[in-house]
Amino acid sequence: MHQTSLILVVEDELLIAMELDLTLQSAGYQVLGPAPSVSAALGLLRAERPDAAVLDVNLAGEWVTPVAEVLRAMTVPFILASGYRAAELHVEPVLRDAVNVGKPSTTDLLLRELRSVLRSSNSDQS
Amino acid sequence: MNLEDLYRLLRSAHVQAQGIIDTLEEPLLVLDNAGCVINGNRGFFETFRVGRDDTVGRSLFEIGDGQWNIAELRRLLGDIVPKSAAIIGYEVQADFPAIGPRTMLVTARRLVHPDNNSTSVLVLFEDVTNRRRGEADKDILLAETRHRMNNLLATVRALATQTAVEGRSGEEYRHAFLGRFEAVIRAENLALDASPEDDLSALIQQALGAAEPGRCRVVPGPPIRLKRSQVLPISLILHELVTNAWKYGALSRPEGVAHLTWSVEAVAGKSVLNLAWREENGPPVISPTRSGFGSRLIKHSAEQSLGGTAELRYEPTGLTFHLAAPME
Asked: Which one of A91, A117, B202, B301 has the fewest beta carbons within 10 angstroms of its own beta carbon?
């Protein structure tokens, strides 16, 4: 990749969002957000198209589903960073098949999975 | 008394079976080997609110709008008579006429009449609707608790990784980490409390609590109840202000003082909280001494979490800080 990839971060817990922001920037990415709610995230997506997204699932009570659906429609790949287990995520088709790096997530795993979805997204488009 | 005991007693000739059956609150039916109701106890008629006349002589699979007409239940009951098997706790979920949706456990056993070797089936019903609901509620509560715990662990980890280490001793790092950690704990406890009227005052009191009386002068504004999502950012902002004042600002000098006030204004029809912090009589402020993490914390808290703005100014008289956050 020649230019810095832009990653949308959706996370409602302040310190976790800041850590994600710092982790991604230290790894050389640009961060869109972090957005703490569905409405904030959708607002950001109206203005810019990220290359990928990292999504927390439970945002102060509401699920991130609407954001995931918009991202899918935009063909922007995403990974989840959520404490929910597979069985709990199963109820939402759009989230069911996404990679979940868990919470707290290991930095290595997060960056590896992010690289992976960016790579496959790039190869899809070439 | 469970079904085994009742079964044993019913085989004995000395027992007033009818009396026992009627004492049982649990619904009980006696069926013939074709599934027709021979008899039922008062518990059955009262629980399902059906009359004796609507039940006795009719097939179990017809009564109550056919609620019991389930293929699996028919098969199981069909197996009991020839094989002397038993059904224990077969779960039936149905919307029963008169009593509504219930979950029932069905237990059934073959009875052989001592006088003529005719076969009957004794069926006991247990209403476990409330028990199942309680279990479902418990599952939800457990999932939410686990989720909350994961978030707290991730939050503490985020604090540990972002608290600065450069140019600091282990003790200084730990002190900085624990200070913010305690701000997180305060926020968590406040959020868990049964909604006090005035969250903001409580938070301020706790954040300023360590300071000697008179060093931090608070001019209270109106009582403000904060949303759950506002508690942590405000707690952390207050902690930053107080800590920095101690280390480099007004509170690092005995004559230095910090003033804190707040008010609520209507801006374009929406309520906005204005929080103002002003230091005076402190050491001359030369350049920003706040750590990278501290600055980022204030910025993120104000802009992302609170959806507002924060302004920090290094005036000649002392540091001033102003937060404007929509209250919704």
From this structure: A91
Rg (CA), chain B: 36
Strands of the sheet containing A30-35, edge to edge, are A30-35, A6-10, A52-55, A78-80
Does the B3-127 domain belong in CATH 3.20.20.70?
no
Which chain B residue's Cα is nearest to A32? B304
Q: Do A18 and B232 touch (CB under 8 A)?
A: no
Token pair recorded at residue A7: 């990653």
Asked if B191 and A52 count as a contact pair (C-beta separation under 8 A), the reply is no
Picking from B292, B198, A54, B76, the residue whose alpha carbon sits closest to that of residue B300 is B292
- CATH superfamily, with its number, for domain B198-326: Histidine kinase-like ATPase, C-terminal domain (3.30.565.10)
Residue whose C-alpha is closest to residue B154's, from B162, B164, B142: B162
State the fold for domain A6-125.
Rossmann fold (3.40.50)
**Residues A14-71: pLDDT tens digits?**
999 999 999 999 999 999 999 999 999 999 999 999 999 999 999 988 999 999 999 9
Q: Please give the Cα distance from A126 to B88 (Å, whole number).
A: 62
CA angle, B227 as apex, B221 and B228 as ends, to 5°? 130
Which token pair is B101? 């949706």
Say how far apart CA A24 and CA A30 lie, in whole Å. Answer: 7
pTM: 0.76
User: Which residue type does B328 have?
Assistant: E
Of A16, A22, A58, the CB nearest to B155: A16
